[in-house]
Amino acid sequence: MDSKQAKQWMQKTAIRMEAEKDELSALDQALGDGDHGVNMARGFRAVEESLDEWDELSLSQLMQKLGSTLVSKVGGAAGPLYGTAFMRLGAAWKDVHQVDGEAWMSGMAKAVEGIAQRGKTQAGEGTLLDVWSPVAATFTASEPDWKKIEAEAKKGMEATEDMVVKKGRGALLGEKSVGHLDPGAVSSYYLFQELANLMKAGE
Amino acid sequence: MAENRVALLLISHVEALAEGARELLQQANPDVGIYACGGLNDGELGTSVDHIEAVMNEIDPEDDILIFYDIGSAKMNAEMVQEIHEDRNIAISNAPLIEGAYVATVTAGLGSPLLEIKREAEGGYSKEG
């Protein structure tokens, strides 16, 4: 992925979040504020509107800007979590102009570490980490297998339905929190699905 | 060395809840600096770093700050603000918003330092188990 493709990824994700806005918010009504879709759509719309201004930025700077925009425009818990993930990718890709398997592997490991620290969470607690973590583990030093990455993201997203939520307000409900897809895991799946589609098209 | 004065910052998803809590607590001691940060900048429900930052600007830069939060994302955004201002003495209380901030108001009114107020406020119950 180069910076041009990164910008296309942001654009595709903005369109996707807008399209899935109502569904994501409905999922969030089960255990949260019911605003995840609206927040994600607002955040990525702000990203999309900034893309012209970001035209001269390096890949690393783009990821930093994406992260800080999501922190402030998405808000809630998703803003800091997604924001931290992309800022870590930006930091990991300091001198990277074309992300290869190895750069994805090291960058995603940092992103996952960032989400875990920010959310004081780990995989298996019904959060977006249940998508980010298996996706990160799928990257190897060789050419990324985008089909497999998408499949892992989907599997991780679906698994959150059977988990006892340990974080956020859903955690107040204990065992009663089982039976709901985590909205952050679902939006993360969309994010990686858009990435996989884009990268497969470029192959 | 004299201890810094401690201001309380109440973060809630709802403006009316934060403002109402501030009103209740200020009654216990009108001299303690209590700041309410409820909802988002545009009046919608939620919590965000941007809005907390706006309220942070109203607090005396010499004051230490003890933050109370309601549920879910309020805490994560409080932690981000704490990191942004790493040069300041900011603590986050895991006590329930109303009960904890009430104890903190009384304790801060006695001139206690930040961590003692946090300890007192969490004395009865902490949301972190």
Automatic annotation (TrEMBL), chain A:
<dbReference type="InterPro" id="IPR036117">
    <property type="entry name" value="DhaL_dom_sf"/>
</dbReference>
<feature type="domain" description="DhaL">
    <location>
        <begin position="4"/>
        <end position="197"/>
    </location>
</feature>
<dbReference type="GO" id="GO:0019563">
    <property type="term" value="P:glycerol catabolic process"/>
</dbReference>
<comment type="function">
    <text>ADP-binding subunit of the dihydroxyacetone kinase, which is responsible for the phosphoenolpyruvate (PEP)-dependent phosphorylation of dihydroxyacetone. DhaL-ADP is converted to DhaL-ATP via a phosphoryl group transfer from DhaM and transmits it to dihydroxyacetone binds to DhaK.</text>
</comment>
<dbReference type="GO" id="GO:0005829">
    <property type="term" value="C:cytosol"/>
</dbReference>
<keyword id="KW-0319">Glycerol metabolism</keyword>
<keyword id="KW-0418">Kinase</keyword>
<comment type="subunit">
    <text>Homodimer. The dihydroxyacetone kinase complex is composed of a homodimer of DhaM, a homodimer of DhaK and the subunit DhaL.</text>
</comment>
<protein>
    <recommendedName>
        <fullName>phosphoenolpyruvate--glycerone phosphotransferase</fullName>
        <ecNumber>2.7.1.121</ecNumber>
    </recommendedName>
</protein>
<keyword id="KW-0808">Transferase</keyword>
<comment type="pathway">
    <text>Polyol metabolism; glycerol degradation.</text>
</comment>
<dbReference type="GO" id="GO:0047324">
    <property type="term" value="F:phosphoenolpyruvate-glycerone phosphotransferase activity"/>
</dbReference>
<dbReference type="InterPro" id="IPR050861">
    <property type="entry name" value="Dihydroxyacetone_Kinase"/>
</dbReference>
<dbReference type="InterPro" id="IPR012737">
    <property type="entry name" value="DhaK_L_YcgS"/>
</dbReference>
<dbReference type="GO" id="GO:0004371">
    <property type="term" value="F:glycerone kinase activity"/>
</dbReference>
<dbReference type="Pfam" id="PF02734">
    <property type="entry name" value="Dak2"/>
</dbReference>
<dbReference type="InterPro" id="IPR004007">
    <property type="entry name" value="DhaL_dom"/>
</dbReference>
TrEMBL record, chain B:
<dbReference type="InterPro" id="IPR012844">
    <property type="entry name" value="DhaM_N"/>
</dbReference>
<comment type="subunit">
    <text>Homodimer. The dihydroxyacetone kinase complex is composed of a homodimer of DhaM, a homodimer of DhaK and the subunit DhaL.</text>
</comment>
<dbReference type="GO" id="GO:0047324">
    <property type="term" value="F:phosphoenolpyruvate-glycerone phosphotransferase activity"/>
</dbReference>
<dbReference type="InterPro" id="IPR004701">
    <property type="entry name" value="PTS_EIIA_man-typ"/>
</dbReference>
<dbReference type="Pfam" id="PF03610">
    <property type="entry name" value="EIIA-man"/>
</dbReference>
<feature type="domain" description="PTS EIIA type-4">
    <location>
        <begin position="5"/>
        <end position="129"/>
    </location>
</feature>
<dbReference type="GO" id="GO:0009401">
    <property type="term" value="P:phosphoenolpyruvate-dependent sugar phosphotransferase system"/>
</dbReference>
<protein>
    <recommendedName>
        <fullName>phosphoenolpyruvate--glycerone phosphotransferase</fullName>
        <ecNumber>2.7.1.121</ecNumber>
    </recommendedName>
</protein>
<comment type="function">
    <text>Component of the dihydroxyacetone kinase complex, which is responsible for the phosphoenolpyruvate (PEP)-dependent phosphorylation of dihydroxyacetone. DhaM serves as the phosphoryl donor. Is phosphorylated by phosphoenolpyruvate in an EI- and HPr-dependent reaction, and a phosphorelay system on histidine residues finally leads to phosphoryl transfer to DhaL and dihydroxyacetone.</text>
</comment>
<dbReference type="GO" id="GO:0019563">
    <property type="term" value="P:glycerol catabolic process"/>
</dbReference>
<dbReference type="GO" id="GO:0016020">
    <property type="term" value="C:membrane"/>
</dbReference>
<dbReference type="InterPro" id="IPR039643">
    <property type="entry name" value="DhaM"/>
</dbReference>
<keyword id="KW-0418">Kinase</keyword>
<keyword id="KW-0808">Transferase</keyword>
<dbReference type="InterPro" id="IPR036662">
    <property type="entry name" value="PTS_EIIA_man-typ_sf"/>
</dbReference>
